[in-house]
């Protein structure tokens, strides 16, 4: 009497299905950098964000920190970049270094502190901006920067934007 191979075949078939399911879950599961816990807050200095995002501008560094602490706990936030008023001045001077009169006239008091919020995939940025505007009336501006919308408005003048890497930064 020959032993049956049927239990072995069933076992292998189940193993293949389980492995395929695990691989599909890893590949297709929405990726967030903070699967549990708040989104990280990183200094904007040294980073060039290119992904769709929300920028929140405020008058003081303290207000920026308070808003960042709330927003980082929102499930739609993947990563936040903060910029103090002093860091904004340094960046302003770098951007306009070829315009010495403009650089000389720049004052830290005139520039906002800001938070740039990178959302998780699928977040409705415009709806979120509406909610943030209601929650943070102290913000001087809150706007969604959506690459496709910007390209549609300015593409004829500046051409198509460079592709943004999955990291959301150049």
Structural summary, described in words:
The chain is built from six helices and five strands. It starts with 5 loop residues before the first helix and ends in a 12-residue tail after the last helix. Residues 22-34 have low confidence and may be disordered. The protein has helices at 6-28, 61-71, 85-95, 100-105, 125-135, 147-158; strands at 41-43, 53-58, 77-83, 113-119, 141-145. It has a five-stranded mixed β-sheet with strand order 1-3-4-2-5. With 170 residues, it is of the alpha+beta class. Helices cover 44% and strands 16% of the residues.
Notable characteristics:
five-stranded mixed β-sheet; 5 strands; 170 residues; alpha+beta; single chain
Condensed summary:
With 170 residues, the protein is α+β, with helices and mostly antiparallel strands. It is 44% helix and 16% strand. It is extended.
- Our measurement of the CA-to-CA distance between the termini, rounded to an integer number of angstroms, reads 68 Å
Low-pLDDT ranges: 22-34
Q: Biggest sheet, open or closed, and with what strands and sense?
A: 5 strands, mixed
Portion of residues within helices:
40-55%
**Based on helices, strands and strand pairing, what is the structural class?**
alpha+beta
The average pLDDT is 86
Q: State Rg.
A: 23 Å
> Strand portion, in percent?
15-25%
Determine the number of helices (DSSP H or I, runs of at least 4 residues).
6
Strand order of the largest sheet: 1-3-4-2-5
- Beta strand count: 5
